[in-house]
Amino acid sequence: MNIGKIEEKVEAIKKILDPERAKRERAKERAKGVAKGLAIGSFIGGLAGIFFAPDKGENTRRRAKKELEKAKDILENNMVEGKQKFEGFMEEHKETINDKLMTVKDKFKCKCNAEATEEDKPEEKVD
Question: Is residue 106 part of a domain?
Answer without folding.
Answer: yes
